[in-house]
Amino acid sequence: MSVLIKEKTEYTPRIVMDSNKHLIDIEGDSFPENTYDFYRPMMDWINSYFSTVYNEITTVNIEINYFNSSSSQLFFDFFDILEESVKNGSKIVINWIYVAKNESTLEAGEDFCEEFEILNINMIEKQVV
Amino acid sequence: MKKLDFLKLELTINDVVLFDFNGIVTQNTIVSISKAIRAILIESVEEEARVRTIFALIIEIMQNILSYSADSVDLGNNRCKSRGAVLISHSSGDNFYKIHSGNYILKEQQKPLEENLNRVNAIAIEDIKEAYKHQRRSGKKVHSRGAGLGFFDMVRKSKNKLAYRFHKSDENNRIYFELDVKVKGAKKL
Prior knowledge:
The complex is a heterodimer. Chain A is α/β, with parallel strands linked by helices. Chain A has a single domain (about 5-125), classed as STAS domain (Transcription Regulator spoIIAA, 2-Layer Sandwich). Chain A is built from three helices and six strands; from the N terminus they run βββαβαβαβ. A six-stranded mixed sheet of chain A has the order 1-2-3-4-5-6, covered by helices on one side. By secondary structure, chain B is α+β, with helices and mostly antiparallel strands. Chain B has helices spanning about 25-45, 50-70, 105-120, 130-140, 150-160; strands at about 15-25, 75, 80-90, 95-105, 165-170, 175-185. In chain B, strands 1, 2, 3, 4, 5 and 6 form a six-stranded antiparallel sheet that branches.
């Protein structure tokens, strides 16, 4: 069981991965200088987590305001791992959280829904008052 | 002495320069510049969605300069330092924002770069979303600095084709590369 936390910076999101709570939370902007290097610990964590989890439901919350093209590519790989895990029997709830007036994150979420139909990604509109 | 190249632009009386930069590019410069541009555009009372598009384009363009320019130097720990120019103008004539950028590339980079740009520009704007998704699928698990999606992303976000020019420089092995991305303004400035 392990917990991985990366604090938010101006160009990277806050990442919380908690195998005790079966929770993955990603929130913020994503345009690191070297995307794969930045996300490598997260990808390694996910790969090992889904190889050990069985009946528990894992919740994945993603709220990305802006991501650059290499982060978009990275998140494709991330969803690909989730899809493989679901095919292997994992139960995953994925929430894609977006602010209504931010069309590009809505569109990005819809893109992932179309690409990974098996994942049933929930599109959740966040109200900002 | 080596001559420093600048953007070769012909601005008219209808063009307002909103931002002009020529210098050292690092990840921190990109963060500062993108924030400054966001503030300038918000001041210009541009619509939020448009501000977000231009912000995204600036980051994409400057991260390309950071990674692919001939001046890109590896600082270790996966950090680079590079050099380039970015100028943003708004033309009241056609209500377009234009993001002009320039940086040196090595001579051997010109052909593959030109091929990439032509490949993206050959796609009709209405087909770019599908082409972007196709490109992303084919780039799966390709762990390079860039994902090859950058130009697709620029066309998709700007809803316009990319303009580019290559100029000879004083040094034989270098070419000055200019890229222009334009975005239709939502409001009149």
